[in-house]
Known about the structure:
By secondary structure, this protein is α+β, with helices and mostly antiparallel strands.
Amino acid sequence: MALSLIVNGEQRSLDIEGDTPLLWVLRDELGLKGTKFGCGAGLCGACTVHVNGQPVRSCSTPVESVSGGEITTIEGLGKGGQLHALQEAWVAHGVPQCGYCQSGQIMSAAHLLATNPAPARDDIVAAMTGNLCRCGTYSRIIAAVESVAGNSLAYDAAAAQEEN
């Protein structure tokens, strides 16, 4: 089946089975390895990407359902070779441990901030609930999102840098 997608701003044409999960198209066909396979059932959030600005679980999304759509992966989140503010905050706040869930976490947080630039802590917690982190860095994730949103009162990234 011939499909057309816009992935990270680039038009891509593929000849692939329509029921192939978007995750495997991104990873195996397009070489975008930042989006991770976690549970395969859309429950853990590791595979989260944006389709037409909305977060979706790419492991359970057939590629034919997003044909013609605009897909943004973790590789396309930053612009002009620069990290996205959330990616910088992840580093500054020491969020990654194993790092496996991080691309999905960041993509969910990016959608939250795109739709609510000044979320309250409860909004952040609610938005991130669908993304699991086996390492348990949830408090750091919340602090990183708050710092980008300008809401961080409990965590000073500059002080954290000095600690390291």
